[in-house]
Amino acid sequence: MKKNTSLDHPFLDMAGELSNRHIEEARVAGKRVVGYFCSYVPRELFDVPGLVPYRMRAPHTTTTDRADVYLSFVNCSYTRCVLEAIFDEALDFIDGYVFTASCDHLRRLYDNLRYLKKPALCHILDLPHKTHAEALDWYTGELDSLRRGIEGAFNLRITDSDISASLRRTNEVRKIVGGIQAMRRKDAPPITGEEMHRIMVAVNSVPADVAAKNLAEIYSMLEEREAPKKYRARLLVIGSHMDDPEYIGAMEEIGGMVAADTLCGGAIQFSDLVDERDSPLRSLAARYLRKLSCPRMFEDFDNRYARVVGAARGFAADGIVVQTMKFCDTWGVDAQIFVDKLREDGFEVLRLEREYTRGGIGQLRTRVQAFLEMLGK
Predict the structure, then answer these.
(1) The domain containing residue 81 runs over which residues?
(2) pTM
(3) CA-based diameter of the chain, in Å?
């Protein structure tokens, strides 16, 4: 018989920290931490001997006074908060940075880091806007260029065998994440959306072998756990980058259970395995180029929309929250198209605009409360 146990696991606590003990231990051992900014960057290239991957975030930043001098106030608050955290030395454990040419905001952050900080590694990937065969060839070449850039910056060698071993470890993480995701389809899931979000923030902050060990323990705990709370409605959250679980928690405090999300740092981004049979760089290029797409990808709206609708139906969402970060150019365009089409297809939709920081979280809670009432829940 299942018990109503608390999901008390230290892995979830990492979501409240910027650094963590695994990063500190790696640095003591002489490893370099590579911060990456986009879900199109293959973390497997930094999860090799001598390196540690880290998805860049700065959720505790309260002001962006210095960053605003270098980045316009119409740049999204995510990029400004990250630059401010770098100025504050809160991210001094990062040894190098990897970007994609995904939006003008990240490109300007890349320019400023090269100018202001001159890190050993500051690399930007020329990510194609399409996913055809020529784009795959191009991105494979870009990943090889990144590998050589990392080797030169840190005076190490990354072999195909290193990358193959890394992608196998990350595939194991994807499989366990998929198992936990399956539990969220239940009428009474043993895990909340906030807890899942905390797990994914932690997964993106540690090497794959550390993530796999902790996820396996969490999976076992969830098998013995009853639903931690009752909910009024099941929600699917989509839209701009979000790495602060407090936003999800605010929705759930008032009875809206986030049954799933399609956020770029969320669990659904771990749903596609890397083919382990092809050459490792080409396999990585294919997997990342053809995963759940971002609005910056051209001519892929239909596939992106189908994945979102599939998630809404697969996780039995009563309503869909389309949230966008203020001044997010890519989602600023795509969001309204999504809202219109989702409503046309019979879905109940709430459109929200927010900042990266928590300043407007009270307003978000009020809007979601009204949405739940509109759903009759």
Answers:
(1) 15-161
(2) 0.95
(3) 60
